[in-house]
Amino acid sequence: MLVTRIAPTPSGHLHVGNAVNALLTAWLARDHGGRLLLRIDDFDTGRARAAYLADVFATLAWLGITPDDGPADPSDFHARWSMARRTGEFRTAAERLRLAHPDDVFTCRCSRRSLVDGACGAGCRERALPLVPGTTVLRLHVPPGVVVPVRAAVPEAPTTLPVPAGDHVLWRRDDLPAYQLGSVLADEALGVTAIVRGVDLLASSALQLHLAALLPAPRFQQVDLRHHALLTGPNGDKLSKSAGAQAHPMLRTPELRARVEGWAQSLGAPVGIPPPP
Ligand SMILES: [Zn+2]
Q: Are 192 and 223 in contact (CB under 8 A)?
């Protein structure tokens, strides 16, 4: 059975790009008779504001989306679904990954600013430094030229993706999973089999599939990934990214709801996601 998810991060108000993506994800689940989950990524609790969390539920209600599983409202979220309480479990997975792949996964003292072309230039990889909160991060080394197979959901979709080269953070200096690792582990644990996201996340998808092969996260390796185009304005400018934050909540009017539906129809057709009959 197809299992997909809407996975907002409560670090800002949702924007029209998030709304279109949520609708497309709900349509994919419906089209396949699958399950739709809501997974709210609040690892970065410092940025998760109550207003942003409430905005997630209000936006889904406005769109007419009722997930099959996941938090029903903010208090249910805090009581049963917060990811922040699972940090220890994810840290264990990160440490296991490091032991299994000592040549690829290493601790690094370097800040993002001191990296050279996205890679550690200080030789941390050869030093086997301890992972110490506040002092070191865990990085995944990806040499140039790595490609990963990707399950092509539609005939036009690529069957391989290039993995961005560099030393990518897996575990942060503030002792939290980085986005890529947290996302793969959470989706794997939930049994997610399909993800709908914007083409601006192609590089993330490639890195996540590469990570899934190393962990291993066998379900994620087989995930049905649909990358839709981004919303553009009349002059071809980008209206919004599929990920990101905005300062104010959307004006949840019936008119905007109709426009979101129209955008979802136009972006969903090329990736095989039809609107409900
Ligand atoms: Zn380093």
A: yes
Which two tokens mark 9? 């991060």
The CATH number that applies at residue 175 is 3.40.50.620
In total, how many domains does the chain have?
1
Chain Cα centroid distance, residue 193: 14
Ranges 32-46, 113-127, 230-244: which has the least confidence? 230-244
8 within a domain of the structure (yes/no): yes
* Cα 247 from Cα 264, distance rounded (Å): 23
Residue 34 lies in a domain: yes
- Whole-number mean pLDDT of the chain? 92
Please state the φ and ψ torsions of residue 44, each to the nearest 5 degrees. Answer: -85, 70
Using an 8 Å Cβ cutoff, are 160 and 148 in contact?
yes
Q: 133 CA to middle of ligand 1, Å?
A: 15
* Assigned domain for 277 exists: no
**Torsion angle (degrees, nearest 10) of CA 91, 96, 102, 105:** -30
Residue 103 pLDDT class (50, 70, 90 cuts): very high
How many whole angstroms from 107 Cα to the centroid of ligand 1? Answer: 7
Please give the distance, rounded to the nearest whole angstrom, from the Cα atom of residue 167 to the centre of ligand 1.
9
| In the block, residue with structure tokens 């349509």 | 27
Ligand 1 centroid to 108 CA: how many Å? 4
| Amino acid 83: pLDDT | 85
Task: With respect to residue 26, please indicate whether it lies within any of the assigned structural domains.
Answer: yes
> CA distances (Å), 14 to each of 10, 51, 229, 250, in order?
8, 11, 18, 7
The whole-number pLDDT of residue 92 equals 96
Residue range of the domain that includes 126: 3-271
